[in-house]
Amino acid sequence: MLLIVFHLLLMLLCIFYENHISACRRYKEYLPRLASEFPKCLFCHIRASKAQMSANFIQRGLPCFIAYRAGEVVKTWLNIQDYIGDNAEYDTLVERMQDAGVLPYN
Fold first, then answer.
1. Phi and psi angles of residue 92, each rounded to the nearest 5 degrees, phi first
2. Strand partners, 92
3. Which of 20, 39, 71, 101 lies deepest, with the highest CB count within 10 Å?
4. At residue 9, what are phi and psi to the nearest 5 degrees?
5. What's the pLDDT score for residue 20?
6. What is the mean pLDDT of residues 15-35?
7. pLDDT value, residue 88
């Protein structure tokens, strides 16, 4: 029963990226810090081409963050810099994710 409750509360945040896209590299570099500051969330990165995503998606949709809770998508940000700005710093990313209910407020 405890495992089921944990699964329902757990947030998984995935970034889809490609190394040749500078914004992807920047956001991917934030993952270790996110993981250390939000230990009740899981974080992963997935290279879009390895996941067989289309060239159109890679060109227009990256970097992409998808948040899951209990196996369901709760938030998707395609081309996240359109949402938070081209030069968004770590704190801006965290603030937007907290506002969206993806990350808890500390």
1. -65, -45
2. none
3. 101
4. -95, -20
5. 93
6. 93
7. 80
